[in-house]
Amino acid sequence: MRVLYDRINTISATNENASFPDDNMLTPYQGQLFKSTNTTSVITINSVTTAGVNGNAFYIGNTNATEGSYSLYDDTNTLVETVSFDVDNRDSLIDIITGTKRQGFIEHWQLFGTYQPAAFKLVITLTTTAATLYVGIIRTGLADHFTNPNYGWQQNIIDTSIVNSTNIGATYILNRDKIRVFNGDFIAMPNDDFYKFQDLYYKLQGQSTAFYFVDDGTSSRQMCFGKLQQPSSTFPSFELGNWSINITEEL
To answer: Between vectors from CA 56 to CA 219 and to CA 77, what angle results, nearest 5°?
Structure first.
């Protein structure tokens, strides 16, 4: 499991639609969109410059981009690497009528090829096959690694739709967002992942962040941008700690 510590200081984008500004990518709400005036945009991100800043990944949530590339610069503004990528459509919806994939709530997680031990600049170019490019959220910084959750990891859905029934039996439905909720636990050595995860919760201070879960046995992946609820812990043995965690997706 990887959890992203945000290191963004400033963000700007070309082809900005003034009604959907680039600052929308920094809000905690993936439904608050940045929109380009056409099919592409170049997004420039500068990390914070405080001591100890570092980075090795970025996350994009709720986008209709189909492909992209990024250029990474170190703290001396020297080009470190340039990489092209296809935007992950793992979370695209399936049209139940046609059985084909349709553009849905797409997320993308990308690890840098070169870890950055200091401040950095990230330039991301995104392109879509649709008429207009949009992006809900971007985060970049340090993707810290933790033990994967135990088997039995659960995903549930909160339906925020409003359902009203009348006295004659009719039902009126206002369709609204469906929010994913993840919960489970993982076991870790107290002096390694256990206390490090506790420190993560303190540092987030209630802010949402990107999570990335990997099943090494099946190579399956799950991404989520959400809020870590207050975790609880038990100590099944002297050498092990058990975290029960709950993550609520932010839309």
So the answer is: 145
